[in-house]
Design goal:
Among the domains are: 38 residues, no CATH class; 32 residues. It has three helices and no strands. Helix content is 76%, strand content 0%. It is elongated, with a radius of gyration of 32 Å. The protein is mostly helical.
Length: 108
């Protein structure tokens, strides 16, 4: 309950002070922001952020593409009767199997 009262008082105080600041203060804030936004430092920071975002996007796209290709490859192998585990062990019922279908994997 104390938290709600405190938040209410803080909100009301901020609203009243903000309303008293009025249009003049708003215009001051916008002017300072526009000066900052058009400064060479801000432009460099925006350029760096944009380049970084492009790099991250390229890496993410490549990882998704690679994962998709692996998934498709595994699905194709499973359709052929060979699982990834079978490939590692050299067992399975697919064309690359060393054992005939139904034969024990460890047997002769």
């Amino acid at each position: 309950m104390r938290l709600r009262v405190g938040l209410g008082i803080g909100f009301a105080t901020g609203y009243v002070l903000g309303a008293k600041a009025g249009r003049y203060r708003y215009e001051q804030i916008v002017k300072v922001f526009n000066q900052f936004w058009s400064s060479p430092q801000a432009e460099r920071a925006r350029d760096q952020a944009s380049k970084f975002a492009e790099q991250v996007q390229d890496k993410a796209t490549e990882k998704v593409r690679s994962a998709r290709e692996r998934k498709i490859s595994l699905e194709d192998e499973e359709l052929a009767g060979v699982t990834a585990t079978d490939q590692i062990r050299g067992t399975g019922n697919g064309p690359s199997s060393r054992h005939p279908p139904g034969a024990p994997a460890g047997g002769p």
